[in-house]
Amino acid sequence: MPRIKFHSGETIPLEMHKVRIVQKLTLLPIEDRLKAMDDAGNNTFLLQNCDVFMDMLTDSGVNAMSDQQLAAMMIADDSYAGSATYTRLEAKLRELFGMHYILPTHQGRACENILAQTFVKPGTIVPMNYHFTTTKAHIVLNGGVIEELVKKEGLEVTSDLPFKGDIDIEALEALARKEGADKIAFVRMEAGTNLIGGQPISLANLADVRRVCDKYGLILVFDASLLADNLYFMKEREDSCKDLSIREITRRVADLCDIIYFSARKLGCVRGGGICIRDEGLYKRMRGLVPLYEGFLTYGGMSVREIEALTVGLEETMDEDMINQGPQFIAYMVSELLKRGVPVITPAGGLGCHIDAMRFLDHIPQAEYRAGALASACYIASGVRGMERGTLSEQRNPDGTEVFSNMELLRLAMPRRVFTRSQVDYAIDRIDWLYQNRKMIDGLVFVEEPEILRFFYGRLKPVSDWQEKLVAKFRADFGDSL
Ligand code: F0G
């Protein structure tokens, strides 16, 4: 996606692909959207996809695939053991990451299960830049604790720091000195740090982490699920990467790590996952868990068709025009929302556009779920489905009190190569309208609150008739427009 300037001087993100297969979308009238949101208990996870116009819930497993990926699926070699399809994937991963040993899995969290079961023992610590929900769950399940050491700017909504995902290296070194290799199961670095707004890490920071790991004899594990976005940001924002190809940057990243794992639902635009390991001993410690939880070593729970498409998808990740698309669309959305005064996470990261519900809805008590209320209002106003990333996604304390999240975010994920610019403009327009009318939005309360992972299937209701009033205002402002 080259930087194209219009005659007017405006710079736009220009799609470097054409659409050859389409899926019909429907945009329900706002009254029907209100009913759908009510039926879903004000939880966007419980909406039916047929009622959604733009599905910005996640970028996981919903990225567009290329013609080359679809073509590759037709030549897949169906075989339980020794499939040629798997050999091709193994060769591609070895080529890109320079690690010899590969374990296939059905998705990213399966890698986390294997890593945690192998390395995490009760009382051990896993320092990391920041956790992802499933990562933390597996570590805790095995008796470990996580220690989040992201730089302080990483937790600030607005910042100029280009690599907000970087770890505080002094804090990591202090922890390593204090606890040592016996207590530290491994050090984990996450590319494109998901929960703080898809914020990248720098190559320089990763090199510093390597230095600490070498000094204290620690294993460095790299979560590459969001590597594609992170590679783009390294090339864009880091001087030492400016003259390197994406393939060269990939190799420099990999050369610093002992183990790389990924969700292929993001990296490679298919559905699957894998672990790449440099050392034979570490590989052998993990290998036995793959047939137990995933499937035989040459498919790991993935279909051969997906594996074939993954091999192509990984190669396509080396194409700057391909990996630029998501971050540039997100940057466009972020800058347009900023122009309209809407509070968003800056700098723009990967994964999606993150709206700061803490400020957007500062008149609502945090206990009435600002980000959840915004997700509900956003769907009603636009048919755009986002994901709550705030207090609703936390778990209550054992005494029943709420754990208030540091950030209250509405994540609007940007699946790669899926939406057109006019669709993104539509989302911007409706969010702008919501912002103008933000004082009409009020809170939510639980009517059904599951004890574990309540955000997935809990049901809520509005604290007043604010949603009906919002619909009436929409009708007054937009007439009979959808
Ligand atoms: N690591 C990161 C950084 C992730 O973002 C995810 C998934 C996983 C691991 C787990 O991978 O879903 O294939 O099992 N993130 C998805 C999301 C769920 O919506 O952000 P998985």
Automatic annotation (TrEMBL):
The protein's required cofactors: pyridoxal 5'-phosphate
Subunit structure: Homotetramer.
InterPro entries per UniProt: ArAA_b-elim_lyase/Thr_aldolase, Beta-eliminating_lyase, PyrdxlP-dep_Trfase, PyrdxlP-dep_Trfase_major, PyrdxlP-dep_Trfase_small
Residue numbers carrying N6-(pyridoxal phosphate)lysine: K266
Species in which this protein is naturally found: Rhodomicrobium vannielii (strain ATCC 17100 / DSM 162 / LMG 4299 / NCIMB 10020 / ATH 3.1.1)
Domain spans labelled Aromatic amino acid beta-eliminating lyase/threonine aldolase: 55-427
Taxonomic placement: Bacteria, Pseudomonadati, Pseudomonadota, Alphaproteobacteria, Hyphomicrobiales
SUPFAM superfamilies listed in its UniProt record: PLP-dependent transferases
Keywords (A to Z) from UniProt: Lyase, Pyridoxal phosphate
Family: Belongs to the beta-eliminating lyase family.
Any GO MF annotation of the entry: tryptophanase activity
Broadest EC class assigned to this enzyme: lyase
Designated name of the protein: Tryptophanase
Entry's EC annotation: 4.1.99.1
